[in-house]
Fold this sequence. Notes:
Layout: H1 2-5, E1 22-23, H2 26-35, E2 42-49, E3 51-52, E4 64-65, H3 70-90, E5 95-103, H4 111-124, E6 126-137, H5 144-152, E7 157-163, H6 167-172, H7 179-191, E8 196-203, H8 210-222, E9 227-232, H9 254-270, E10 274-276, E11 280-282, H10 287-293, E12 298-300, E13 303-305, E14 311-315, E15 320-323, E16 326-330, H11 334-342, E17 348-353, H12 356-371, E18 373-375, H13 376-383, H14 388-399, E19 406-409, E20 412-415, H15 423-428
Parallel strand pairs: 2-5, 2-14, 3-4, 5-6, 6-7, 7-8, 8-9
Antiparallel strand pairs: 1-17, 9-11, 10-11, 12-13, 15-16, 16-17, 18-20, 19-20
Helix pairs in contact: 3-4, 3-11, 4-5, 8-9
Bound molecules: S-adenosylmethionine and iron/sulfur cluster.
Iron/sulfur cluster is lined by residues 52, 54-56, 59, 61, 63, 103-105, 138, 161.
InterPro entries: Coprogen_oxidase_HemN, Coproporphyrinogen-III_oxidase, Elp3/MiaA/NifB-like_rSAM, HemN_C, rSAM, rSAM_horseshoe, rSAM_sf
Domain Radical SAM core: 37-274
Function: Involved in the heme biosynthesis. Catalyzes the anaerobic oxidative decarboxylation of propionate groups of rings A and B of coproporphyrinogen III to yield the vinyl groups in protoporphyrinogen IX.
Amino acid sequence: MLARYGAEVPRYTSYPTAPHFGEGAGAPLFAELCASLDPVSSVSVYLHVPFCDRLCWFCGCHTKQTRRYDPVAAYVGTLTREIAAFRRRLGFSPRLGALHLGGGSPSFLAADDMRRLAEALRAAFDVCPDAEISVEIDPSDVTPAAVAGLRALEMTRASIGVQDFDPVVQAAINRPQSFEVTRDVIAMLRSSGLVSINIDVLYGLPLQTPGRLDATVEKVVALQPERVALFGYAHVPHVKKHQAMIRTEDLPGRNARLSDAERASRAFVRAGYEAIGIDHFALHADPLAKAARSGRLRRNFQGYTADPCETLIGFGASAISRFAGGYVQNTVPTGLYRDRVEAGEPAAARGYRLTGDDLIRGHIIERLMCDFGLDLDDLARRFGAAAEPYAREALRLAATDPDGLVRVSGRRFAIRPEARSLARVVASWFDAHLRSGEARYSQAV
Ligand SMILES: C[S@@+](CC[C@H](N)C(=O)[O-])C[C@H]1O[C@@H](n2cnc3c(N)ncnc32)[C@H](O)[C@@H]1O
Ligand code: SF4
């Protein structure tokens, strides 16, 4: 099954996926989609910080290592101007329901720059008192001064990169990080106020034996984060050149990846976490676990979320915005992004206007990725008669599925529990864009 289905398929953090956005379509589409926003609904905001003070060889993010801080401070200035220009374009301050700072390493920002960003956001948005404010954090950056900056932002969740605690694996990915430093950073964040913690762990890393991964999982559990993300390392050296520093012969094979993912997943569940979607775990009381139990789990560019906002505004180089009617991505090179914003032009470079077909397929794919199933009656309630051909398509796929990955009981199309690690493959059956274009993805498991 793995040999047959271990193909490269998207992670479906959007539908269609970013490689299908059209070049040059960004700026006019962004203007049009902004005009469709109303002052009543809340929006989410994503800020991208494409800088790190180190370069991990496994990294697949839009970031670059910088030893000097001046370009980072200058970038924060540009971000604040992009946020202010968005507010002017809109003519009102939208309600902000959730904010995520990602990268790169936003934790690399000096406390004063974090304060500048917080002020720019408060000047442009009406921040809801219960807004979730999450920040991606490299523990090696966190000092007491940085914590003061995070407090100025009123951060409510820290998402901490661990990957693997074993020194041999860390040497193979150029990411030294001791358990003690990670533990102390978490203690510092927790004592600074009400902060919930997410930890990122990777399987499929070079020289990562089952024993090394198991020991990492045990240490992660000892830190008692509210959430864990367990991602499969995506080795795409054709896209991320520095990944060529990782020796292919050190990487675990497909079967080892699957058994590692399954074993680590069972260990988190044994330790009291609830499994969420394909790669997340959360304690029972965490909002993500609550959303999953009640069928309200969503998937966006950051992965799984309990955030119900339909609109996500992305600021910064490469950031993607999602509106009810389409997607827009800012230009990726940091220099070009700066030139556009400083010239008073929109940073939007690529975009995609959603069709009726995309909306229904996107909904089906999101439900399969979040709930491993699809309620065909719910589909009909949402989309009316337009849903009928898609329900027929689902029934036909279930009837012709040679390996029994899915089953239909009553009006529910569901991925079998044993096939859940192939959820991306089943989702891809509904992807009308998959075979068009040049896009390449990471392996399904
Ligand atoms: C922006 S980083 C996290 C914050 C911070 N920069 C750090 O590294 O601690 C986001 C996460 O993406 C995941 N990630 C990065 N490159 C990846 C890859 N090639 N495949 C799978 N996951 C990857 C890692 O788990 C990482 O923690
Ligand atoms: S994993 Fe995090 S710290 Fe490492 S290069 Fe990527 S974004 Fe930077």
